[in-house]
Amino acid sequence: MSRGRKLGALGAAAAMVLLAGGCAAGTHPGAAAVVGKTEITVGDLDKTSRAVTTALGQDFTTSITLNELVNNALVEQIREQRSIPVSAAETAEAAKLVVRDEAAYQRFQGSELTRDFLNQVASAAVTTIKLGGGTGVNDPQAQQKQQDGMAVIKEASKDIKITVSPRFGQWTDGAIDGKISGSLSLESDQAKAKREAAEAQQQQQQGQG
Questions:
Q1: Contact predicate 10/125, CB 8 Å
Q2: Could you tell me where the DSSP H helices lie in the chain?
Q3: Segment 44-58, tens digit of pLDDT
Q4: d(CA 35, CA 73)
Q5: Is-above-0.90 flag for pTM?
Q6: CA distance linking residue 114 with residue 37, whole number of Å
Q7: pLDDT band at 158 (very low <50, low <70, confident <90, very high)
Q8: Cα dist from 93 to 88, 99, 119, whole Å
Q9: Residues with Cβ within 8 Å of residue 85, at least 6 apart in sequence
């Protein structure tokens, strides 16, 4: 089962939205990223990536993990600014929809680290829908409200400073671009897969020509 199916989304990737924000240089030593008042350390990033990989049963890279941690922190800060209520019951319900594979869901519950990570992703999903004017994951128009909420967050994020260590890339267009980085940084897994797919398609077209 693919990561996309195991870590299922609310509608079209509602729980895993990547949101636009500011970008600037200068994280603290040992920090992978800083989102407003929240610092994400390299140690926490590595531990979370390994723990989520174990819970899912397949690789959840540091690039994907950092994007999620940045997104979680960003949405949480906007939720606090807007006083958007998200109950424990709402978070638990959304978490079930984020991880639709029951065995994987139970593995997430078996560790405090992965349980907290899942709850943060779920809370971000609920918050996004509510910011768009919806009532939560059971809203009949949840997908549209999610899209509306993403627009609200994109606008609100302009006032929140997001910095990413050059080791991991640069925050660009709502995601961490692994290609825009220091000389020691490797191409991200997602960027590599996309590039290789494009190259294979090009070769196939040349072979048919």
A1: yes
A2: 3-6, 42-56, 62-82, 88-98, 102-109, 112-131, 142-156, 189-208
A3: 999 999 999 999 988
A4: 6
A5: no
A6: 22
A7: confident
A8: 9, 11, 10
A9: none
